[in-house]
Write a structure and sequence with these properties.
- Strands 1, 2, 3, 4, 5, 6, 7, 8 and 9 form a 9-stranded antiparallel β-sheet that branches.
- The radius of gyration is 18 Å and the shape is globular.
- Helix 4 crosses helix 5 (130-144).
- The chain has 5 helices and 9 strands.
- Strand 1 and strand 2 form a beta hairpin.
- The chain is of the alpha+beta class and 196 residues long.
Length: 196
Amino acid sequence: MDPIFQTAIERLASLIEEARSRGADEASSAALATATADARPSVRMVGVERISSSGLVLFANTETGKGQQMQMNPRASLCFYWRVLQYEVIVEGEVGLLSEAESDAEWNKLPRETSLGHWASDQIKESAEPAALKQNVETYRAQFDWDRVPRAPSWRAFEIRPDRISFWPTGWQRLRVREHYLKSATGSWVLAKDNP
């Protein structure tokens, strides 16, 4: 691993842990920006499941919304923001769809309620009442009893493989230096800094 990229990844992981230790809710959540094949953008909050040695792993339904967009236009951006730290981190990069086996391995790490929620949401139209979604959760809870919840077929793990990671202080009128870890055309990483 490129040492500059390793520094950036470790720094991001450290900020997530610091935010969590200081009581930030959902410290590993980020705004995910994707776009359709014709460049129509959309953004939503997602949970980042894991930071790997090559990128950031998250789950998406391959048949709807962000899952389809990440396949049609495989570039994305994540923005983490922690008010408690007065800090944000922006990650930009290519998107890779992980294999079935890798997706299974990541799925097995999810909390049981999250897995049940994914199964339930697969069977509900966007216009359905919240009560219908809750009923679906209960249906799958009974179906799987206390067995391990298998991966819902349409859900896969994606990995955002960065080519840019920017660290932005947000407090004190943003008067601190911003740092950008950038992947060059040769594949090596460099660190650039700029003033607010």
